[in-house]
Design a protein that fits this description.
CATH superfamily of the largest domain: Galactose-binding domain-like
CATH class of the largest domain: Mainly Beta
Radius of gyration: 40 Å
Number of strands: 9
Structural class: alpha+beta
Helix content: 25-40%
Length: 202
Amino acid sequence: MTDNGFCVINNYDMDKKDIYEHLAKIYLDVSSEKKKKSKAHRRTFVFRRVFLIGIIFIFGLSAFLIANFSRSRPFHSEISLVLVPDPVKINFNFNPAKKEIFSLNLNHLDITKFKALGFSVKKINYADSISLRVEFNSAFKEKSETYFKNISHHWHDYKINLSDFKGISDWSDMSSLAMVVEEWNTKEKKGVVYIDNIRLLK
């Protein structure tokens, strides 16, 4: 304190105060920068996580849709001659009918180069028990048949070798292919059977 009442501040104290303020500012700046980096890191982490979940969801949905499409309309990549590309419906009512038939005119088709018959089939009534008779007829009056038992209420693909139709010796001139639901091969008297993608396989 001077004689005139003014206070004199020591230069050393001023320098010390400036240093403290400078250090505090540096600390605050560093802390603020760390907070910014932490927030940016969290945002990046959340974005990556959301992106990964989105990718997993898209792949899962794609797999689900492909699986359901495959069940609803079977996909086939083998070499084949498609005889009926769209689903056909056998709507049977055994009062008074005894059988219902889907018949396809093969129009003297030569199928000697083919080895098997393929088709997909399903029933509508879950509780019904149905066997499907499949029958070939040739222009030489040869006839042969086989049965597919316990038709499912989901699409199921069947394949049978043509050699299993023992009654056909010459496949060079075929007249018809028939698929038959018979009264004695069903549990219920009424129902529906769908047949799809009837084809000959090499």
